[in-house]
Amino acid sequence: MGLRVENIGKSFFNKGQEKIVLKNIDLNIKDGEFVTLLGPSGCGKTTLLTIIAGFQSAEEGHIYLGEKKVSKPGPDRGFVFQDYALFPWMTVGDNIVYPLKIQGVSKEKRDEKLQELLELAGLKGNENLFPHEISGGMKQRTAFVRALAGNPEVLLMDEPLGAIDFQMRNKIQRELEELWLKTKKTVVMVTHDIDEALFLSDRVIVMSREEGKILRDLRVPLKRTRDKESLEYLELKKELTELLERALRG
Fold first, then answer.
1. Which strands sit side by side in the sheet containing 203-207, from one edge to the other?
2. Does residue 244 register a pLDDT over 90?
3. Is the pTM of this model over 0.85?
4. How far apart are CA 162 and CA 165, in angstroms?
């Protein structure tokens, strides 16, 4: 089916002044691809992600998931927020199956799905804990499988490791990759972290501050799991660093 971004344009007004954030943005994403939008703050990457999610509309262009035009949020797109957005008054288990409860899925089927997702995320035995009782990595895994609970076609992630401290990032990146490899969902992720983009993605889309212009659609040819010390990895990292410097200049 695939995800298609066609001629997307978006502007914001501040004190009567129009700022064009996105203009003529086109992007095709195949089923099962892990694609990252990489760029500096203000380049429109999160705006584009939320348009794909249906959280806001574009003034120009359209988003298609398969043959269906996206105009509002729906269960075919799961979303992982930067700050996890877990309900603090709910247990890990209740957080995970909350989307199914909203959809009216029976308790029996919710319980069955919960066991499957706990196993997938390595969270068995933690389902009765509350968010404040678990680590940042466990919160991230909880948010990830909650987004998978409704079996969406596409998973959208807005800087999912943004709340993880630097020392834990490598470990959590590997955990996130392991989860994705088990599901092979189509993923669109937003980040400004070059290493994160390169380690996790099949493709990295580098966006400029100038109307979200796509400077490069870089396919990552490295085998998984990636060796961050390999010459090939370091060369690609250097290339992305130079591209991001260009993006910062607009």
1. 77-80, 154-158, 186-191, 34-38, 203-207, 214-219
2. no
3. yes
4. 8
